[in-house]
Amino acid sequence: DKLADGPLEPEDAARYMEQVSAALAEAHSHGILHRDLKPHNVMVDARNDRALLADFGLAKLTEGDQQLTATEAAMGSPPYMSPEQTLDAGKVTTASDIYGVGATLYHLLTGRPPFQAANAVNTMIQVQTKEPVSPRELNPAVPIDLETICLKCLEKEPSKRYVSVQELAAEFARFQRGEPIHARPISR
Fold it and tell me: Which of 15, 16, 17, 95 has its CA at 20 to 30 Å from residue 50's CA atom?
């Protein structure tokens, strides 16, 4: 509903995604991967304007013998799935949830997902092979630091993303305090 009138104010998007990152950090600390982070799974409590992470229907435990997902199956919402998740949902890591934070942030800032095609298969091909359009190209009001955070989350290679959602939450906090972020803008 908050996106019905277009992109959010960058400061609101950063605040909500810091709260989502903190929720993911708690889930990760208990060995739970969300695997379906997208705007529809972020609820905002109208009483206190706080973002809440919802719908753990595709969640996966990172430890133990319990395998809830068939290997080599692509599960999730294609416009928000990490490249590795489009190939095998059974082999995702915390880096895939970090990608989901970036894809959700992208949507909050631009009013659209980072990748969208006519069907799910073509969308997954875009996720695997294309770079997202710069958020600032779609919404010039996006601050460069917030774009940098977003694009670092959307890196194709998981090792180039933030190391943890705690580190990502700290970046959002630095941005909101007006402090320099640690990530540097992504070069071509």
Answer: 95
